Amino acid sequence: MYPAQFDYHTPGTVKEALDLLGKYKDDAKLLAGGHSLLPAMKFRLARPAHLVDLRKVPGLAGIKEEGGSLVIGAMTTHWAVESSPLVKAKCPVLAQTAAQIGDPMVRNMGTIGGSLSHADPAADYPATIIALNAEMVVEGPKGKRTIKVDDFFKSLMTTAVGPDEILTEVRVPVCGANVGCAYMKFPHPASRFAVVGVAAALTVEGGKVSKASIGITGAGTKAVRAKGVEAALLGKALDAATIQAAAEKAPDGVDVQADLQGSVEYKTHLLKVFAKRAIEAAAKK
Asked: Of 264, 17, 10, 273, which Cα lies nearest the Cα of 138?
């Protein structure tokens, strides 16, 4: 299957890309890694008249530490995140999450910004960036603005990035010495997308959890924060009873959807199982 005819644009700056979006509006689509958009175009599920390729825009890829956060350019590939010594040292769970995405071809071409902007409900990054309390920097005609992760995912494949804006950076706070993090998922055997995925970031002080941050992906229409699990962990020692009781709260607030991968009951069960595994893994770290 071949995509419908389109005009191809290769802007050299973010401003040029924004100008193209402003000019062609709904007829334009941004191309990052392309692993989601191009298949949709081939099946004629997406028929943009103009494709704006961001791969030649300088400054949109790369990883650096700045002000206590990792600053990751939106066009940074999954492989670059997975293999980065800086990410492994400062925020290892992000590298571990990237390593679980798709296959080597996907990780070498796909980008963190493309994945987050596409907001597939079964993608891996969203759970982890929720748990890590990341921020997204977007740029539009009126300049730059920062979106907190709790405000970023709006609904099925919909984010807070405006139609005339481009996601340019992801800012992830560096994990402290007393913070344990983990991402655990039940992958689809073919696509490797998360049937259910849970990320946990736990801060332990004096033998008790002083801060808990839990992100969930895969089960519903969008990635969400598991507030019930977080509340059940705060102020508690991470013993087996506490972890089990907290994991039971994982389905709370999740719009669990039945699909070809499983029923609502099955996915609800998986949420509890993988919440427990993620908390246990984070506790060990």
From this structure: 17
Query: Domain segments of the chain: what residues?
Result: 7-53, 63-173, 179-284
Tell me how far apart the 2 most distant CA atoms of the chain are, in Å.
Answer: 62
Q: What is the pLDDT of residues 81-100, one digit of tens each?
A: 999 999 999 999 999 999 99
Phi, psi of 141 (to 5 degrees): -60, -25
Tell me which residue has tokens 């984070």.
282
Residue 244 tokens, joined: 């089990």
- Predicted pLDDT at 1: 78
pLDDT given for residue 35 in this prediction:
86
CATH superfamily, with its number, for domain 179-284: CO dehydrogenase flavoprotein, C-terminal domain (3.30.390.50)
**Residues pairing with 111 in the sheet:** 77
The tokens describing 131, both together, are: 């748990």
Q: Which residues pair with 136 in a beta bridge?
A: 147, 170
Radius of gyration of the chain (CA): 19
Strand residue runs (E) in the chain:
7-9, 28-31, 50-53, 63-66, 69-73, 135-140, 143-148, 153-155, 158-159, 166-173, 179-187, 194-205, 208-217, 224-225
Residue 62, sorted as left (phi over 0), alpha (psi -120 to 50) or beta, turns out to be left
Packing angle of the helix pair 240-247, 264-284 (nearest 10 deg): 150
Structural contact between residues 282 and 182, judged by C-beta atoms closer than 8 angstroms: yes
Alpha carbon 228 to chain centroid distance?
Answer: 21
Each residue's pLDDT tens digit, 34-57: 989 999 999 999 999 999 999 999
- 3.30.465.10, 3.40.50.2000, 2.30.42.10, 3.40.50.1110: CATH of 63-173: 3.30.465.10
CA distance 237 to 188: 33
